TrEMBL record:
Residues 131-352 form the ATPase F1/V1/A1 complex alpha/beta subunit nucleotide-binding domain. The keyword Ubl conjugation does not apply. Belongs to the ATPase alpha/beta chains family. HAMAP family: ATP_synth_B_arch. GO terms for biological process: proton motive force-driven plasma membrane ATP synthesis. This is V-type ATP synthase beta chain. It comes from Roseburia intestinalis. Keywords: ATP synthesis, Hydrogen ion transport, Ion transport, Transport. NCBIfam families: PRK04196.1 (NF003235). InterPro entries: ATP-synt_VA_C, ATPase_a/bsu_AS, ATPase_F1/V1/A1_a/bsu_N, ATPase_F1/V1/A1_a/bsu_nucl-bd, P-loop_NTPase, V-ATPase_su_B/beta. PROSITE patterns: ATPASE_ALPHA_BETA (PS00152).
Length: 458
């Protein structure tokens, strides 16, 4: 028989304290009854002898020390799952908010998940095509990879996320018929941004293979900390039990980290860098490491976390710690955005550490790696030529440097830049790269194997 605890000992923001508890455990769900009628949920985030701190998922405004009763449920937060979640919209706790009723659950899963055994992982192979040349050509997304997007306030990461959801597929070859779906989780977004995502997915006809989990900016902070866990639990179910390839997009991880900082301060914990809790790294790792491929399952979980760098500072704790855990990054550049180039991806600091294992003759095309190497090298030379031109003037540059300037402008406009609804195949992306290299003297193409150069140059 469940014991009901009468009254609270303390209320501090989304945190309440209950004394005299027995048999409680960390992350256990607690039912809070206010005035004998209004029910709220919370989870235990700290236990000290018989003193438990409960994080409430809803507002605590109506609660007082005397009018609230607490009951321990003996279970962690769980979510009911089936393939019916595709095409549906949920709040941050996994509860339907689209007016279509409850999901008929085949299974119920703990949202905290289980660590993936490293011995059971398969090495990521093959790629996911986004239709965006700067990603597909130079920072290719590999199935089972975690590849974050580093953005900044005011940059079009929302538009880029929506375009990736609309265009993402398993490639242009024989594998594109395998089951593929998207799990989209938004944390702390404004109402108009959430409506933008829902409207755009519906207009493009992709809603039927997208499961959306939305935590709005006016929703409880505690719910924001659960949203990515609920989304990843759904992704793992679809991938490893329904054998689907799942792309998970998490936006914005900065909102998630700031929610952690707020709750940590209310708990009275000693802050670390920039006021964030010292366990920020482990919390990020617990989320990011839920991507991958498991032996015996034909599905995969691929992650694209999106974060906004405060003051465009890539050394800020959020992008800094994310970079340690993930396998590369895609960096959005403000200067390119000011040139009206979309998407404003700066390819030089961007990289995909697993790219080499999912491209080439078996997966994309035999010239892909050499072409990418040459485009990287040539665009880096563009920066040197621009720096030199700013000192001595463009007229004093050598003919080769002038050609590099011409190449840089064309590369930014035609390869990096593309329409917000433009979906390029991998072959189109690679062909654009070859066409742009013709701006440069053939003798400058020193990163391409001679046989490949002879085959594709003409």
């Amino acid at each position: 028989m469940a014991i009901e605890y009468l009254g609270l000992s303390e209320i501090n923001g989304p945190l309440v304290a209950v004394e005299g508890v027995r048999g409680a455990f960390y992350d256990e769900i607690v039912e809070l009854v206010v005035e004998g009628k209004q029910k709220k949920l919370g989870r235990i985030v700290e236990i000290n002898n018989d003193y438990a701190v409960v994080q409430v998922f809803e507002s605590t405004e109506e609660m007082s020390l005397l009018n609230t009763h607490a009951r321990l449920t003996g279970r962690p937060l769980c979510v009911g799952l089936s393939e019916e979640i595709l095409g549906r919209t949920f709040n941050g706790l996994g509860q339907p908010i689209d007016g279509l009723g409850a999901v008929h659950a085949e299974v119920v899963r703990d949202v905290n998940g289980q660590p993936m055994n490293p011995c059971s992982r398969e090495y990521p192979r093959n790629y996911i095509r986004t239709g965006i040349s700067a990603i597909d050509g130079l920072t290719t997304l590999i199935r089972g990879q975690k590849l974050p997007i580093f953005s900044g306030n005011g940059l079009p990461h929302d538009e880029l996320a929506a375009q990736i959801v609309e265009q993402a597929s398993l490639g242009d070859g024989e594998n594109e018929d395998e089951p593929f779906a998207v799990v989209f989780a938004a944390m702390g977004v404004k109402y108009d941004v959430a409506e933008y995502f829902k409207r755009r997915f519906a207009e493009c006809g992709v809603s039927d293979h997208v499961a959306m989990f939305l935590n709005l900016s006016n929703d409880p902070v505690a719910e924001r900390l659960i949203t990515p866990k609920v989304a990843l639990t759904a992704a793992e179910y679809l991938a490893f039990e329904k054998n689907m390839h799942i792309l998970v997009i998490l936006t914005d991880m900065t909102s998630f980290a700031e929610a952690m900082r707020e709750v940590s301060a209310q708990k009275g914990e000693i802050p670390s860098r920039k006021g964030y809790p010292g366990y920020l790294y482990s919390e990020f790792a617990a989320l990011y490491e839920r991507a991958g491929i498991v032996n015996g399952a034909s599905g995969s979980v691929t992650q694209i976390p999106i974060l906004t760098m405060p003051n465009d500072d890539i050394t800020h704790p959020i992008p800094d710690l994310t970079g340690y855990i993930t396998e590369g990054q895609i960096v959005l550049e403000r200067s390119l955005h000011q040139k009206n180039i979309y998407p404003p991806i700066n390819v030089l600091p961007s990289l995909s550490r697993l790219m080499k294992d999912g491209i080439g003759e078996k997966y994309t095309r035999e010239d892909h790696q050499d072409l990418a190497n040459q485009l990287f090298s040539s665009y880096a030379r563009v920066g040197e030529a621009r720096d030199l031109a700013s000192v001595i003037g463009e007229d004093e540059l050598s003919d080769t440097d002038k050609q590099y300037l011409k190449f840089g402008t064309a590369f930014e406009k035609e390869f990096i830049g593309q329409g917000k609804d433009e979906n390029r195949s991998m072959a189109e992306t690679l062909d654009i790269g070859w066409r742009l290299l013709h701006i440069l003297p053939r003798g400058e193409l020193d990163r391409i194997d001679t046989k490949i150069l002879e085959k594709y140059w003409d």
